[in-house]
Amino acid sequence: MLPYGRQSIDNADVDAVVAALGSDWLTTGPRVARFEKDIEAVAGAPAVTVTNGTTALNAAYAAAGVGPGDEVVVTPMTFVATASGAATLGAKIVFADVEDDTANLDPAAVEAVVTPRTRAIGAVDYAGHPADYDALRKISERAGAVLIGDAAHAIGSTCRGRPVGTLADLTTFSFFPTKNLTTAEGGAVASIRPELLERARTYSRIGMVREPAKLRRPDEGGWFYEVHEFGNNYRLPDVLCALGSSQLSRLAEFKAARQRLTARYDELLADVPGLRLPIQREGVDPMRHLYPVRILDGRRREVYDRLRAAGIGVQVNYIPVYWHPVFEDLGYQRGMCPVAERFYAEELSLPLFVDLTDADQDRVVDALRAILIG
């Protein structure tokens, strides 16, 4: 089965992991700090590493002060963690619809649902294309809310020359194997606001505080620490950070490969009827995580089934979050975000990863053309 996404591991990655395994550090050591600096160089903002993209979101919402009684506005066209990361802190999730062309959070829809209880606004850079953070920033500032960017798809993307980690108050990343780079499991939180990053770091380190200036009892001894607020243990180990730094050294190569394959899909599929291709807005230089096409005329299920039967592992990204039973049981109903639901009914992610060959891509295109054209 040709997968829709897959990691790219080379000998340098293997050597980096082996070296870490032979060192004195397997958990929190010097490679953690190095990887965080390497992320900062790409994201444009200081970062703290965590265990995965889901815990990155939870730590970001915690850093924003999200808690019971707060409302958090998010997109429904995402993995459930974008919403559950705030819901598990006690917040009420408010879903706002998406833009038809990018599937990103629609600022006009956000404006319509913001209230005095809105604590945070969570956008997603769908498929690697940054959301409209300039418009969302104006809304968040008027509301007194923290703007959070879920950039699980978008490390390496820029908008008007600005790295994706500088566009929101807090930005989260995922390093799952299908993402733009991998640490096996892993994630990060970056922030342009030092106080928010420090809150995210403390929360993801079990709430432990060691700095003498912050301790209530600073004279206990060098072993002493305090917990001022509850946190979680989201520490990413040294050995995985070694892999991350090695992967980041190839990020420009990864981006070029994904952009070349995207352009090739654009060319090969341009004349296929019943198919809508993804767009790229002016000023955006995306790291393409997905190649999401839209299958028109109600044929998405047929195309999905026939491509999978042919050994082509297409995927659907994503089920509208409020369709999941955990949200249905809270009273959320289908139909509340019609643009997102229409997008879901048509979306199909074609295989896209760094080591996808032209021959494999031709196979995908030929199979898709055969189904849609006959």
Automatic annotation (TrEMBL):
<dbReference type="GO" id="GO:0008483">
    <property type="term" value="F:transaminase activity"/>
</dbReference>
<dbReference type="InterPro" id="IPR015424">
    <property type="entry name" value="PyrdxlP-dep_Trfase"/>
</dbReference>
<comment type="similarity">
    <text>Belongs to the DegT/DnrJ/EryC1 family.</text>
</comment>
<keyword id="KW-0663">Pyridoxal phosphate</keyword>
<keyword id="KW-0808">Transferase</keyword>
<dbReference type="InterPro" id="IPR015422">
    <property type="entry name" value="PyrdxlP-dep_Trfase_small"/>
</dbReference>
<keyword id="KW-0032">Aminotransferase</keyword>
<dbReference type="InterPro" id="IPR015421">
    <property type="entry name" value="PyrdxlP-dep_Trfase_major"/>
</dbReference>
<dbReference type="InterPro" id="IPR000653">
    <property type="entry name" value="DegT/StrS_aminotransferase"/>
</dbReference>
<protein>
    <submittedName>
        <fullName>DegT/DnrJ/EryC1/StrS family aminotransferase</fullName>
    </submittedName>
</protein>
<dbReference type="Pfam" id="PF01041">
    <property type="entry name" value="DegT_DnrJ_EryC1"/>
</dbReference>
